[in-house]
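thought: fold this chain, then report.
action: predict
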Amino acid sequence: MRRRKLLFAFQPVDAFEPGKKVTGHCQVSINGGKVKPIKNRSGFYCVTDNPPGEYSVTINNKYYCDKIVTIDTNELDPALPAFDVELEPNLLYAFSKGTTLLRGRVFDENNESMVDATAEVQAISKSFVTDSLGRFVFYFKNLEEDDEIEVILKKPGYADKNTNVAINKGEVNRFETALEPE
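observation:
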């Protein structure tokens, strides 16, 4: 059996529940390498037998937002070139009961769903790109009480929109709005 040389290894982890392995199957691809990542029994994707350098890793999963990570192997600890990659939950993720959520929808002046608009909440330093139905979701882990947050919506060709939204702790909060052409 041929011995492989580990270049780096990564494990997709759930950003909502730290320490939890991701739900569902991940599709992983690597640009810049000749050898595809191999998933081991502990959930790490191992990249072997490739030259040192910069690699782009793409992770897709039904329950999480797509993630692209750039790795420069020259910046990794050669004794332990392993790390976690946090995946943010998407609209299909099964949030636990009592989680404070903001589920929203963005549409245009004709009430057509707005695909690939960016929804941003600066208070939690997160952004979300809307899906094919114009939907997005944010979760609030450290909300102490009901609050009001600012949602910033953007899409090229449309005027940016900043809106304050009331958030009730422990509930699924809903918000819909239209963007107007510039």
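thought: worth noting. The chain has two domains: 6-87, 100-178.
final: tokens above.
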